[in-house]
From TrEMBL:
Location of the Glycosyltransferase 2-like domain: 6-124
Name of the molecule in the record: Exosortase/archaeosortase family protein
First and last residue of the signal peptide: none
Family statement: Belongs to the glycosyltransferase 2 family. WaaE/KdtX subfamily.
Transmembrane segments: 297-319, 379-401, 407-432, 444-462
Alphabetic keyword roster: Cell membrane, Hydrolase, Membrane, Protease, Transmembrane, Transmembrane helix
GO terms under biological process: proteolysis
InterPro entries per UniProt: Exo/Archaeosortase_dom, Exosortase, Glyco_trans_2-like, Nucleotide-diphossugar_trans
GO molecular function: peptidase activity
Length: 475
């Protein structure tokens, strides 16, 4: 029997996952302890077949379940490896564990494994998901479960840690191939996360780890969480989704990966923000604030219409003053203050760069995007999204909210609109058949999509009603 480390696994109806995990560690001859929370399938029978020691404990959340496991199993080894049932130990990690000796690591209290996460059979390689280090191997008696977290579980050790970059575990929840299971699961998780964040606003919870950007993987996560909590609700899910898609190259994960990033980065976190507001909302409707009393709906509608007309026709006028064939062409303006030309050039260059990252050969000039083997895409004025931006900017500026909220939301919204525009150009360059233009105008399709997205975003921004003030007051 292995006297260096033991395995602890927590389960609930894991008959589809548990056999593959136990088979992946069977050659290590290590003690296996399983904490179950009332499975009604064959989970316990499978555990018995593999010779695992089992206990039952009602599930409240992951941190408390792991805390119970560490305190109630009779562990006789200096180290424990804590795994979820939907994880698998790879052959490479297995070899490292076979050669592991406690006396070779007297200075360590914890070891990070490298996780490969799968969704619907696809490895999520980008969007911040690879590499992804999890503290899974801890010195028994020194490491413990962080009870200051409600859902985002982690172990903590007081001493030094080490990262096994080539020590891979695979994580794939086969139940999540049914999207309804994924949605129901994360709907439950969103309750826990929303409640936790409200408690942090009320200073009822604190972070156990010292937040440090240049620290361990978990210390960096703690630092990023502090940044997240200070961001405006309803805007932060979109900002995070855009960051994962374009800055962390989540777009390279393909169709399945993009669906995953949308659900995990945007949908889940938007639901959390909505539930935070539901928790914070008083039982009776709050009176209108002083700004809203002075404004009124008629003033807002009038301001919105006037601003929209001004923005919309100013852009058209400016376009005619900066294009050589324009009616009111002014060379100095075209050469020194031409924001329309700069926007078009930025969209073309960004689209070409993304296509090149995807492995295609793409070139661009001042007006055209060329994708070798596919053809040329020409960006005319209607492609730039200035009409959509005019609508969005007019609404945000006219709406009676504090300017801090307006500025943050306006900037993030415009960036989001143009990043969606870049996504459109990339997809058009790759897939659009010009023959379809006789039946369907892609401008119309994009406008329908973008106005629906803006309407949804504006709805939640209006509903949030001083989301920035709530967050600032709580910190």
């Amino acid at each position: 029997m292995n006297n260096q480390f033991s395995f602890i696994i927590i389960t609930y109806n894991e008959e589809v996952h548990l056999p593959r995990l136990l088979q992946s560690i069977s050659g290590l001859d290590a003690p296996v302890f399983i904490l179950d929370s009332g499975s009604t399938d064959n989970t316990l029978q499978i555990a018995e077949q593999f010779g695992a020691v089992t206990l039952q404990h009602a599930f409240e959340n992951h941190p408390k379940q792991w805390d119970f496991a560490l305190k109630n199993f009779n562990i006789q080894t200096p180290w424990v490896i804590c795994l979820d049932a939907d994880q698998i130990v790879t052959d490479g990690l297995k070899e490292r564990l076979k050669n592991f000796r406690d006396e070779d690591h007297p200075h360590l209290d914890g070891i990070y494994f490298n996780r490969k996460n799968f969704f619907k059979g696809s490895w999520i390689k980008h969007g911040g998901y690879s590499p992804f280090y999890l503290l899974k191997m801890i010195r028994y008696g020194a490491g413990y479960s962080d009870l200051n977290e409600n859902m985002d579980h982690r172990f903590i050790v007081p001493g030094k840690t080490e990262i096994w970059k080539d020590g891979y575990i695979l994580e794939e929840n086969l139940k999540e191939n049914n999207i309804s299971f994924w949605i129901n699961k994360h709907n439950r998780y969103s309750d826990l996360v929303a409640q936790e964040e409200v408690e942090r606003m009320q200073q009822l919870r604190s972070q156990t780890l010292q937040p440090r950007f240049w620290g361990s993987p978990d210390e960096r996560t703690a630092w990023l969480k502090q940044l997240w909590w200070k961001m405006p609700r309803y805007a932060r899910p979109m900002i995070y989704f855009i960051y994962r898609m374009f800055f962390q190259l989540g777009i390279l994960d393909g169709r399945t990966g993009i669906i995953f990033h949308f659900l995990q980065a945007f949908w889940f976190r938007l639901i959390v923000d909505i539930k935070i507001d539901e928790i914070l909302s008083p039982p009776q409707k709050a009176p209108l604030n002083s700004v809203q009393k002075k404004s009124g709906p008629l003033r807002f509608v009038f301001s919105f219409i006037v601003l929209f007309v001004l923005f919309y026709y100013f852009n058209i006028l400016f376009f005619s003053m900066t294009e050589p064939y324009g009616r009111y062409y002014i060379p100095w303006l075209a050469n020194h203050l031409n924001y329309i030309s700069a926007l078009r050039l930025g969209l073309l260059k960004s689209s070409a760069q993304i296509l090149n990252w995807l492995g295609f050969t793409s070139l661009s000039n001042e007006y055209d995007l060329l994708l070798v083997g596919h053809g040329v895409l020409k960006l005319v004025y209607s492609c730039l999204g200035l009409g959509v931006i005019s609508f969005f900017a007019a609404f945000v500026i006219a709406y009676p909210k504090k300017w801090k909220s307006k500025i943050v939301f306006l900037i993030s919204g415009i960036i989001g609109i143009e990043l969606l525009n870049i996504t459109r150009f990339v997809l058009l360059a790759l897939f659009w058949d010009k023959q379809h233009a006789r039946i369907i105008d892609h401008h119309t399709l994009f406008n329908i999509f973008i106005y629906l997205a803006i309407a949804l975003t504006l709805y939640f921004w209006v509903k949030s009603d001083n989301a920035l003030n709530d967050t600032d007051a709580a910190n």
